[in-house]
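Example record

One chain of 131 residues, shown exactly as stored in the release files.
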Amino acid sequence: MESTATKRSKQRERIFQVLRSTRTHPTAEWIYDQVRSQMPRISLGTVYRNLHILTRQKRIQELDFGEGTRRYDAFTIEHYHFVCERCGTVSDLEIEPMQDLNARVDPSIPGVVRSHRLDFFGVCSNCLQSQ
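Predicted structure tokens for this chain:
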């Protein structure tokens, strides 16, 4: 018998499709609004549960940029982000991840570094133009 986490569900697949259709790093509430337009009976709790399952399955990433809200990303290949401190927009950076960074940090860690996450914070061009 399959567990809830491994069993496919229409709701989970729809949530995943919505998340894959955007590169905006949305919140659970945004995803809920999008899915609800096609599945009106879905609850916000169901969206959260399925986001948690998709994260555990490593099909998506859960991101916390210190703003009090978690965001989600279906682009799971290692990449960096830029976060606008004014409008909160999160953008993927089109730069190659620094693989040597793991090796440089490894000697100072009491263990083994397997990956890293690097986020950049500043003001986006849209916010700079609106000043």
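Notes: The first strand starts at residue 61 and ends at 64.
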